[in-house]
Amino acid sequence: MYDVEYLTVAGQFMENCYAVIHPESREALIIDPGGNETEIIDWIAELNIQPIAILLTHAHSDHIGAVDALRDEYGILLYVYYLESDHLTNPRLNLSALYPGEEITVRPADIAWVEPDLTYQQIGPFYFEMGFAPGHSPGHVIFKFLESGFVISGDVIFQGSIGRTDLPGGDTERLMQSIREEIYTLPDETVLYPGHGSQTTVAHEKQTNPFNRMIFGN
Is the N end or the C end of the chain the one with fewer CB atoms within 10 Å? Predict the structure, then answer.
């Protein structure tokens, strides 16, 4: 059973950076380090964990801002799904170009995943499943730690809301399909850790999310 900690990175978008922690070795996967690298590094020290990799649910600028600083600090690899590998180096694709003076570029990924919905992954002592969940962005993935009862769901679904689809690369119909097929098929008790806001559960969103008519197409 893995543990989860998160830090809400201060800034315009209040993005959640996650650490999935092995309770015995204290090794950790860092997911979506969105910015304020000094704060994240201090937080990692306070948790007394050893990062072994950085994983991205997607490559929008508010999820990648501290990536290179953490790679340099800990000497670790960056993983991203191949459909968004070119977003890292292109402010237009990672959407930072929409905000004058805030353009962000990140060095190319060390590992670009292919076919995440067909494979289980192992990184160090961590085992997890990936799900392909586009719509908010074209190459969005989620990380399923189902034996531990949780999923890092990025910007697919939030407590009482869903990911934006009005930005370049968004697709509302595809997002609804992703929620139906990748989120609502999970066990009801599964905890969802989103890219913004508070955690929720599959059951809570199936019962209360105001976008369910769109999600189910009725």
Answer: C
